[in-house]
Every structure is written in structure tokens, then in C-alpha cells.
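Dear H.,

Thanks for agreeing to be a second pair of eyes. The structure we're designing against is below in C-alpha cell form, covering all 423 positions.
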């Protein structure tokens, strides 16, 4: 079982009052410098303890300081330079707003810089504040997988752009003609007036230059170091369509769900894979996402959930989950929550494994008996949670919990997992 450390870079504030007093703390250069410096120490420690991968997210405009990570590729390149074995990646590029050719170029270079020690994460985009702003020129808006017209449009754009990304990685030259993209531009005649056309016809990719001298296709360089391309993860929460798409493409779905929903999605993944000749076992080529807080006592672990994850849950995540918190009459704004109401609501989401070592170990074992996932993505809200605390959690997990999950992942095949789920 392969562990990925996914850090959500949160600019530290000692409490909500300080976050308000320092508004907009997300633009506080001194605090961000502290965050990024300690972040590098954390990634080095993860490398030394044998963690498979390190990632961060792509989010923009987080003036509140909750998820300040607008350019994960730059961060990844630096991490690769200061580590030896750990893979680096993103969870992930929001492809409904990006130029897919630019993503292909950037990730191919990252793949070369790391000599294959990287992976690529993709997502559809669920935060309207920035997805709608950055996606405006291609008509993409944020979605919560609600089957609305905007949701369907977002999926269409996402899949078209991901398909272009894969083509750019794997083909010597590409063409594309749709309402979204014309490659090369304009279609169908191609790009005129390329002054190096004669040399491109002799030295470039076959078919780039037509008999009329126009550019008929483009060659995206460089090709990735990894053949055919780096491993690709796709964020999955509510939409089984995303899971099926990932199976058909050979991508790794990252289940941001309780284990019961992950089990249903894992079954859909296996079924969709078989339709295109990919014979996955349950959990194979799939990742389960968990936040984790360990403590000497259950109470101490739950206090860590409140201290390190509570503020962002209350203000940011709770509207995304049913019964996440009591809300006002508009059902959008969470009421002021005490620790007594906050932590149970967070644990009820099914995304946290929290408690003593024995409790958390058993929580993971129970989940892996249902879905023996090949990957585990562990999320921490660093630097709201100090790096020393994150490192301690990771060391205990790698030493005391991962060996148990390795056994389940190695020996529990798909049929046995289905039987365990039914029984």
C-alpha cells in the first residue's frame, strides 16, 4: 500500500480572532514564508521515512489563508530538488480551467526533472470563487456534481481537456477541432505564415506542415520521461461518472468519501475497467483519502481534530457534507459551533480516522477489509498543524499501522473483499 502525504497549506493563526485581525492573512508574506520554509522540512522528513508520494492542491484566491497553493507544479519542482526517493505531484490541476497543452508541457518537464519520480493529479473544480473566474474564457464554472447544466458542461470541458492532455503526452503531433479548441489555429486550413515551415517539414514531426505550407498539426515538447506518461490521479467525491471515466482511462481515482461510498465507487471502477479490458481487483489502482489525528488518549486526538482541522471545517468544508454542522435558515452559513458539536460532525463525515493508536489502527483495518486500496492519501492542514505534529503522526502510521494494511492490500483480492463487505 502506497502512502501519499497531501498537505493543504494553511497559513497559521493562533485562533479565529487572529485570522480576522490579520486579514487578509493569505497575503501575509511573513506568515507564508514561515509556512513554506517549514513545509520543505516536512517533505524532507516524509522522504526519509519512506513515504511513496508528496502532493499539494491547486486553489486560488484563499485570502482567508486556508489553502494557499496556487501553483503546485512550482512547489513540486523544488521538492524534487531537496529529496531523494519520494514522488512529487498535485491533487490536482483543475483541468476545467487550464490550457491542456501548457499542463502537458509543465508536467512533462517535471517528469524529466524528477527522472520519473512524479505523478499528476487532475480535478474538475468545485470552488466557484476561482473556478468561475479562471474558467470564464472557456465557459467553465464550478460544480458539485449535481447533474445540473453547469455540471454537465464542466464535465464535458474536463474530459475534452484531459483527452487533449493525454494526446499531447503520447503523440508526436496533435490536431483538435471543437468549439473549445482549434489546434493548430485556425481550423481547418491550419496556421499560415510560419516562416520556418521548410525546416519544420524536414526536421519536425511528420505531418506538421502540409503541402500548402500551412501548419497542420503541432508537436508538444518535450515528451514525458515516463512512458506513456506519469501516473494520473483524479479527485472523486460525489460523481460515479468520474470514477468510471478514470477506469476507462487507466487513471487512479482518489476517493474523498466514507468507506461505504468508496466501496460502491470501487465496484463501479472495476466494472468500467472490464468494459475496456482493464481487469482491476477491488481497490487496485485506487486511492482512499483520510485525515488522521493520533493521540495518547481519544480525547487528545479529538482535541487535535478541533485544533488543527476545526476552523477550516466550520467555515469552508461543512456545507459540502450532509449534516456537517447545524446551519442557519438559509442552509448556507454554519452557526457558531462549540467543540462538542464540531468534532462529532467532522467525524460523522467519514473522512477522519482519529483516536489512540489502537483505535486508529482498527479504523484503518476495518476500512481496508472493505476497500483494500492500493494507495492511501493522508491529508494534513499544515501549518495550522505544526510540522512536528504532522511528522509524529506520519512516523507512527508508517511504523505501526501501514504494515497491517500492506497485508490486507497484498492478500485480499476482489472477490474476498466483496464477501467481507456482504458479511
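And this is the sequence the design step returned. I haven't edited it by hand at all.
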Amino acid at each position: 500500500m502506497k502512502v501519499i502525504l497531501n498537505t493543504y497549506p494553511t497559513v497559521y493563526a493562533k485562533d479565529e480572532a487572529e485570522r480576522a485581525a490579520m486579514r487578509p492573512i493569505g497575503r501575509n508574506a511573513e506568515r507564508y514564508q514561515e509556512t513554506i520554509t517549514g513545509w520543505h522540512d516536512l517533505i524532507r522528513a516524509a522522504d526519509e521515512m519512506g513515504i511513496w508520494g508528496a502532493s499539494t492542491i491547486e486553489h486560488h484566491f484563499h485570502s482567508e489563508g486556508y489553502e494557499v497553493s496556487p501553483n503546485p507544479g512550482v512547489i513540486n519542482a523544488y521538492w524534487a530538488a531537496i529529496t531523494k526517493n519520494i514522488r512529487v505531484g498535485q491533487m490536482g490541476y483543475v483541468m476545467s480551467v487550464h490550457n491542456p497543452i501548457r499542463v502537458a508541457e509543465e508536467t512533462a518537464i517535471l517528469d524529466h526533472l524528477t527522472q520519473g519520480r512524479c505523478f499528476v493529479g487532475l480535478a474538475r473544480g468545485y470552488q466557484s470563487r476561482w473556478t468561475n473566474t479562471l474558467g470564464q474564457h472557456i465557459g467553465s464554472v464550478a460544480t458539485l456534481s449535481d447533474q445540473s447544466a453547469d455540471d454537465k458542461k464542466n464535465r464535458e470541458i474536463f474530459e475534452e481537456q484531459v483527452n487533449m492532455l493525454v494526446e499531447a503526452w503520447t503523440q508526436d503531433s496533435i490536431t483538435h477541432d471543437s468549439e473549445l479548441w482549434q489546434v493548430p489555429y485556425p481550423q481547418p486550413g491550419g496556421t499560415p505564415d510560419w516562416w520556418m515551415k521548410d525546416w519544420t517539414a524536414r526536421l519536425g514531426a511528420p505531418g506538421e506542415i502540409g503541402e500548402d505550407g500551412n501548419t497542420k498539426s503541432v508537436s508538444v515538447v518535450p515528451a514525458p520521461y515516463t512512458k506513456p506518461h506519469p501516473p494520473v490521479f483524479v479527485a472523486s467525491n460525489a460523481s460515479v461518472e468520474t470514477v468510471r471515466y478514470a477506469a476507462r482511462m487507466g487513471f487512479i481515482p482518489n476517493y474523498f468519501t466514507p468507506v461505504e461510498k468508496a466501496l460502491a465507487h470501487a465496484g463501479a471502477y472495476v466494472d468500467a475497467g472490464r468494459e475496456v479490458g482493464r481487469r482491476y481487483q477491488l481497490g487496485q489502482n485506487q486511492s482512499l483519502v483520510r485525515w488522521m489525528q493520533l493521540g495518547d488518549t481519544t480525547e487528545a486526538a479529538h482535541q487535535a481534530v478541533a485544533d488543527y482541522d476545526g476552523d477550516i471545517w466550520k467555515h469552508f468544508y461543512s456545507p459540502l457534507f450532509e449534516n456537517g454542522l447545524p446551519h442557519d435558515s438559509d442552509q448556507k452559513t454554519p452557526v457558531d459551533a462549540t467543540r462538542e458539536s464540531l468534532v462529532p460532525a467532522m467525524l460523522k463525515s467519514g473522512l477522519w480516522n482519529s483516536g489512540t493508536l489502537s483505535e486508529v489502527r482498527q479504523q484503518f483495518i476495518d476500512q481496508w477489509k472493505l476497500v483494500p486500496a492500493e494507495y492511501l492519501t493522508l491529508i494534513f492542514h499544515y501549518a495550522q498543524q505544526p510540522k512536528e505534529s504532522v511528522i509524529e503522526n506520519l512516523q507512527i502510521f508508517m511504523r505501526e499501522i501501514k504494515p497491517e494494511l500492506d497485508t490486507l492490500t497484498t492478500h485480499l483480492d476482489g472477490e474476498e473483499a466483496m464477501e467481507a463487505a456482504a458479511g
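Two observations from my side: The chain has two domains: 2-91+231-422, 173-218. The longest strand covers residues 287-294.

Warmly,
E.
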